[in-house]
Amino acid sequence: MKQEFKEAFVGLLFTHSRLIRKINQEVTARGAVAMDVYEVLLALEDAPDQSLNMSELLSATVLSPSGLTRLVDRMVKAGYVTRERSGPDSRCTYAKLTPLGYDARVRSWPEHRDAINNYFSKHLNEREAMLLSEIWARYGEYPRFKHADHEPSRR
Question: Is residue 153 packed enough to be buried (19+ CB in 10 Å), middle (13-18) or exposed (0-12)?
Answer without folding.
Answer: middle
